[in-house]
Specification:
The complex is a heterodimer of chains A (about 350) and B (about 260). Chain A has about 350 residues and is of the alpha/beta class. Chain A has 13 helices and 10 strands. Classes of the chains: A alpha/beta (about 350), B mainly alpha (about 260).
Chain lengths: ~350, ~260
C-alpha cells in the first residue's frame, strides 16, 4: 500500500471523527457575546426576521440572532422547562400575544423599560403590555366573494338571509368566531355569553366548518363558500395569489391579532435580546413585514404606502376601535368554549 | 373466494398508494390552490424547493440524523438481540421490556421527557446536548432502537443455532464464530433494521420538535413550518423528492439484499 492510499481502518477513523465533530459542534455558540437564541416560528416569519431585522441588528448593535424554530406548543414547552433554570439557553421568543401573556403569568418573561428598548416609545398605546413588544398586527375582517354575496358591513350581517348557505369558518378560529358573534349581539371580550345562541341559529343555515385556513381558501376557489371571518393579512395573501376577494372591516370594530416578542427572564444575553427586540420595531423592518406578510406596523413612525394601506391596513379610527382580548377571561373560558364548539356547534 | 381476496388486496394496495400518488400529482399543479382539475402543470414548485436554503439545510440535517441514529441503533440492536435471543440470564424479560418501551410511549411525551433530562444534565455537567446534534441523534436512536431489536431478533430466531455450535466444536473462538457465522446469517435482519430505522428517523416530527438544536431544523419541521404561512404546492414537491429518494434507497438495497425475504 502506498503512502497516498487510505486504509479501511483510517477511513473509518476519519469518518468517525468527522461525524462526531459534526454532532457535537453547535451551529454557533449561544453563549458568546452579542448573540441571542430566539425561539420563533419558522417558514416565512423566520426568513423575514433574517432578511429584514437581522441586518439592522447587525449594523446598529452587532447582534446576531440564532433562530430556534418550531411549533408554538413545542416552543412554549421549552421555555417553560427552562423557566426555573439559573440561565436559560433561550434569550428571545416570538409568540402570539395570548401565549406571551401566559408565559408572563408563569414568570418566564423579562420585564423591560423603554430605556432598554427605545423604539417602544413609538408603539401604539393600545398594543403596549410592559412585558412584550407587539411586532405586527392584523384584524379579523369579513372576507367575501363579490360575485357570490353582497358587501357586508358588520359581523351581525352574517345573520342576514342573503348569506345563508354561503358562510364557512375555519375550525381553528372557533374562539374568534364566538367572540365576533358575542360582539355582534351585545357581548364583549369579557362576556361571550350573548354569542352562543345566535351561533346555534346560524348553524341552521348550513354553515360549513373547514379544517384549516388553507381549506377556507380552497373553498373560496371552488365557490363552495362566499364569505368568512379571517385575519386581513391572511386574506391579503389569498388575494395576492389570485382569489377574487374583497374585505370589510366590521362596523362593530374588528377583533385584533398581535404577533408579540419578548425576552426570557433568565436569558444569558439580555442586552443582545433587547437590541434585537428594538430592531424588530425599527420602521424599516416594520415596513418590510407589512409589504411581505400583510401585517400592519405597530409603531407610529413606519408609514406605509397608501396603496398598501388600502390592501392590508386599518384606518386610525378602525385601529382604535379594535377589540383586543382579555387574556384572563379568555383563559378562564377556554375549556367551556372548546367543549361547546366541538360537542354542540359542530355536532 | 380467491377472486374476493385478490380484490381485497388490490383495494388495500390502492388505499396505501393513493395518498402518495396525489402528493406527486399536486406537486405539478400550476396553481397555489388545490382545485381539481388543475389549470395546467408546471415544474416551478420543484425549482422553488431546490432554491430554498431552508429545505436544503433541513434535508442535510435529517439525512445526518437518520444516518447516525440508524447506524447506532443497528449496532446496539444487534448486540442486544444476540443477548436476548441466544442467552438466558436474570432480568432478561425486564431488559427486553425496557428496550422495547419507546415503542409504547408517544413520541411527543418521549420528546418532552428527553428535553427535561438533557436540561438537567446540562445544569449538572455543563454539557447541553440540545445545543448540538448530539441530543437529537440520541433521541432518534432511542426511538428506532426497538425496531432494530425486533427485526434483528426475529432474524436471529430463524437461524439454526447448530451451525454456530458446529463452528465452535471445530475450534473457532467466540469472535470468529460471530464474524464468520452469526453475522453473515443475521445480515438480512441488519439491513432491514437499518432501512426501517433510517426511514422512521427521517420522517419523524414530534420528537424532533423538542430536541432539535437552535439554528438547525429537520425536513419534517421545515415542511410543517412552511405551511404556517404559505399554502402553495412547494411542500408537495419537497415530499415528492423525499419519496423518490426513499424509493431509490429501497430499490438499490433490494439489488443487494432481497427485501421481500426479510420484511
Amino acid at each position: 500500500m502506498s503512502n497516498l492510499e487510505i486504509g479501511r481502518r483510517s477511513l473509518l477513523k476519519g469518518a468517525a471523527a468527522l461525524t462526531a465533530g459534526a454532532a457535537i459542534a453547535p451551529i454557533s455558540s449561544a453563549w458568546a457575546a452579542k448573540e441571542a437564541v430566539m425561539s420563533t416560528w419558522g417558514g416565512d416569519y423566520s426568513r423575514l426576521l433574517g432578511e429584514l431585522v437581522q441586518p439592522i441588528a447587525t449594523e446598529k448593535y452587532d447582534v446576531t440572532a440564532i433562530f430556534d424554530t418550531g411549533s408554538s406548543s413545542a416552543r412554549r414547552t421549552k421555555v417553560l422547562t427552562q423557566a426555573e433554570r439559573e440561565v436559560s439557553s433561550i434569550d428571545l421568543m416570538a409568540f402570539t400575544e395570548a401565549d406571551m401573556w401566559l408565559l408572563d403569568q408563569k414568570n418566564c418573561v423579562d420585564r423591560f423599560s423603554s430605556a432598554e428598548i427605545p423604539n417602544l416609545a413609538n408603539v401604539y398605546k393600545q398594543f403596549q403590555t410592559g412585558y412584550s413588544i407587539p411586532h405586527m398586527y392584523s384584524g379579523m375582517v369579513l372576507v367575501y366573494n363579490e360575485k357570490l354575496v353582497p358587501k357586508p358591513t358588520s359581523y351581525k350581517d352574517l345573520w342576514e338571509k342573503e348569506y345563508a348557505g354561503k358562510i364557512g369558518f375555519a375550525n381553528i378560529l372557533y374562539r374568534y368566531v364566538l367572540q365576533a358573534a358575542a360582539i355582534a349581539h351585545g357581548g364583549s371580550m369579557t362576556n361571550y355569553e350573548p354569542g352562543y345562541a345566535p351561533l346555534m341559529e346560524l348553524k341552521k343555515t348550513d354553515v360549513k366548518i373547514l379544517p384549516s385556513n388553507e381549506a377556507v381558501s380552497n373553498a373560496f376557489k371552488s365557490e363552495e363558500i362566499g364569505i368568512t371571518l379571517m385575519w386581513r393579512a391572511r386574506a391579503y395573501q389569498w388575494k395576492k395569489a389570485g382569489l377574487p376577494l374583497a374585505f370589510t372591516v366590521p362596523s362593530e370594530g374588528a377583533l385584533s391579532y398581535v404577533s408579540a416578542a419578548g425576552a426570557t427572564r433568565n436569558g444569558a444575553n439580555r442586552e443582545a435580546a433587547h437590541d434585537f427586540l428594538n430592531s424588530m420595531l425599527d420602521p424599516v423592518a416594520q415596513k418590510g413585514f407589512a409589504e411581505n406578510m400583510g401585517y400592519m406596523p405597530t409603531v407610529n413612525n413606519a408609514p406605509i404606502p397608501a396603496d398598501l394601506v388600502e390592501k392590508i391596513g386599518f384606518t386610525e379610527e378602525e385601529r382604535e376601535k379594535m377589540h383586543g382580548p382579555n387574556f384572563a377571561y379568555q383563559a378562564e373560558q377556554q375549556p367551556k368554549v372548546s367543549k361547546w364548539w366541538d360537542q354542540e356547534f359542530k355536532a | 373466494m380467491r377472486w374476493f381476496l385478490s380484490a381485497f388486496v388490490f383495494c388495500a394496495f390502492v388505499f396505501l398508494v393513493l395518498p402518495v400518488v396525489f402528493i406527486v400529482w399536486v406537486s405539478f399543479f400550476d396553481s397555489v390552490f388545490l382545485t381539481f382539475p388543475p389549470p395546467s402543470y408546471t415544474f416551478k414548485w420543484f425549482v422553488a424547493a431546490a432554491e430554498s436554503p431552508v429545505f436544503f439545510n433541513a434535508f442535510t440535517v435529517s439525512l445526518y440524523v437518520a444516518a447516525m441514529s440508524s447506524m447506532l441503533s443497528v449496532c446496539f440492536g444487534a448486540v442486544a438481540s444476540i443477548a436476548l435471543v441466544r442467552y438466558r440470564f436474570p432480568g432478561r424479560e425486564l431488559l427486553n421490556g425496557l428496550l422495547l418501551s419507546p415503542l409504547v410511549i408517544p413520541n411527543i411525551v418521549l420528546g418532552i421527557a428527553l428535553y427535561i433530562f438533557f436540561i438537567a444534565i446540562a445544569d449538572r455537567f455543563s454539557f447541553d446536548a440540545t445545543a448540538s446534534n448530539v441530543g437529537i441523534v440520541i433521541a432518534h436512536t432511542m426511538m428506532v432502537l426497538p425496531w432494530s431489536i425486533r427485526l434483528i431478533g426475529a432474524n436471529l430466531l430463524g437461524q439454526d443455532v447448530s451451525i454456530e455450535e458446529a463452528a465452535s466444536n471445530l475450534g473457532a473462538g467466540k469472535w470468529t464464530v460471530f464474524r464468520r457465522v452469526t453475522f453473515p446469517l443475521m445480515r438480512g435482519g441488519v439491513v432491514a433494521a437499518g432501512l426501517f430505522s433510517f426511514i422512521i428517523s427521517f420522517e419523524n416530527l414530534e420528537l424532533s420538535l423538542l430536541i432539535v438544536s437552535p439554528g438547525r431544523t429537520t425536513l419534517p419541521i421545515a415542511l410543517m413550518q412552511y405551511l404556517e404561512f404559505d399554502m402553495d404546492p412547494t411542500i408537495a414537491a419537497v415530499s415528492t423528492i423525499q419519496v423518490v429518494i426513499i424509493a431509490a434507497v429501497l430499490v438499490v438495497t433490494d439489488r443487494f439484499f432481497k427485501l421481500s425475504r426479510i420484511v
